[in-house]
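Input chain follows. Return structure tokens only.
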Amino acid sequence: MPVPVPQQRAVSAAETSHGADLTLLVIENDPAGTFTVPELPAAAGTRVRIRTARNLTEADRLLTDDVDCILLDLALPTGSEARSAPAEGADELATLKHVLRIAPRHAVLALTAEDDAELAAEAVRVGAQDYLFRGELDGRLLSRAISYAVERKRADVAQHQLTESRLRAQENARLERGLLPTPLLEGSDLRFAARYRPGRSRALLGGDFYDTVRTPDGTVHAMIGDVCGHGPDEAALGVELRIAWRALTLAGLCGDELLSTLQQVLEHERESEEIFATLCTVDIAPDGRRAGLCLAGHPAPLLARHGGAALLPYEDGGPALGLLPRNALPQALRAGDTPWPRRQVDLGGSWSLMMYTDGLIEGRVGPDCTQRLGQDGMVAMINRQLAQGLTGEDLLEAAVTQVRELNGGELTDDVAVLLLDRDQEHIRRQGLNANRGRSIPRPRPEPASPTASANPASAQRPPL
């Protein structure tokens, strides 16, 4: 039946495309084919234009992006569109559920009779923003209901988008956290510490990457690298390079063979030929006293011993991965040239080796923040912190914190710092304690033969 409201000139659907503040689509079975809107209060300042549809087919045709709200008569006969919906059968709200499916971003008002209050409340629980009774409908009520429904729907959509954004952020955080490396150092005397701070806001992973593994022969392999840039694409490429390095290292590759294979991975996975990555690898011998060092465009590590900290030699470093032309690397390897020379380094008995990315040394310093910290500034800073007795996790935390303070705020580049250290005295004490706790079994005498019993001099002695 028609909605009993005060009369006003009917507004056709064709007139609703120009100058409307709010557009209302009325879906009701009105035999006259028209719907009149009550006159709105002058103070409202909002014009409402009406489109009418007698069934869901017409509603689907008139439901365009400029429609703000839908007024649905719950007494509308269930059409074939709603009946075809799965698992609804004779549901009294089948038509409403169909409208909610085809108009998920539109506000919906349910229109029903006064004696259908329970059905009206159920309509709101299903998804309508509000309900109206036919006998109580007037201009002021309709205007307020439309405005409230539209604002309520906007709030619902915003809350839904916020919830989706939070869930997506949580999933990304779990994914990025899972992509950070877990060092494989079981059986090693070396101690491990690391700090990672991406340059991207609200991110856990950047273009810097690192890893540490121990191979069956007892060698500890450590690596740190930096993909140019610090966006999500660079972070993904850094993860690929790290996983490739771990797999190749565990497969027994090292030196030029390893780096040349990583360059091939980079060439195939990067988005453009301008993308490159720097890399530093260190292979520490099983006795912990010497190491092999390879640099591919990366800053040299810092070695700290009792006499203080200093940079390892870096004159023989090779180019960053991705800078050599595609055909230059195979030709150099065939000719016996070494793009990335491997330098032997004596570490000594007790030492700390710090590997880092350039985000740690490119922060600003000075009162005007025009100078970079640089490697020399970093070495001086680490020596001061070592003099204060800082080691391990505390040393790395203090270093990253001070670099941020010197920069006057958060660093814009990714920062990764890796620390491996060996304490010979601590290892010796561990060995002594292990030996003290080990009981020496007493040898068991072999049973004496009858001949030996008769002749004690010929009895067998227990083995020493």
